[in-house]
Design a protein that fits this description.
Layout (H helix, E strand, L loop, with lengths): L1 E7 L4 H16 L6 E7 H7 L5 E4 L10 E4 L1 H5 L3 H13 L1
Parallel strand pairs: 1-2, 1-3, 3-4
Length: about 90
């Protein structure tokens, strides 16, 4: 089971929007039932990543990450979304 951490400033608003889009991406790429998404604030992200495969955040990556990081901003703006999707799929495939 892949663990994906979705983080934003508070762990509620933008991470929820991005979580829905990431879940759709994963379901469309044969990951349905093979992942779980955990939402948190960016201040909790490094701790949540200790056993995670990936962090997707709508803020700057925090220091001390032990998992892969992909910016979630493209899921909000649409700019660079295809590249972010590719990065997520590559991080989970590895």
């Amino acid at each position: 089971m892949k663990k994906i951490v979705l983080a934003c400033g508070s762990g509620v608003a933008t991470s929820t929007a991005v979580a829905n889009k990431v879940a759709t991406l994963l379901d469309e790429n044969d990951y349905r039932g093979q992942y779980r998404i955990v939402q948190c604030s960016i201040s909790e992200a490094a701790a949540q990543c200790s056993d995670a495969d990936l962090l997707v955040a709508t803020t700057v990556a925090p220091a001390g990450l032990s998992c892969a990081f992909v910016s979630g901003v493209p899921f909000l703006t649409g700019i660079g979304k295809a590249d972010a999707e590719k990065q997520i799929l590559e991080a989970l495939a590895g």
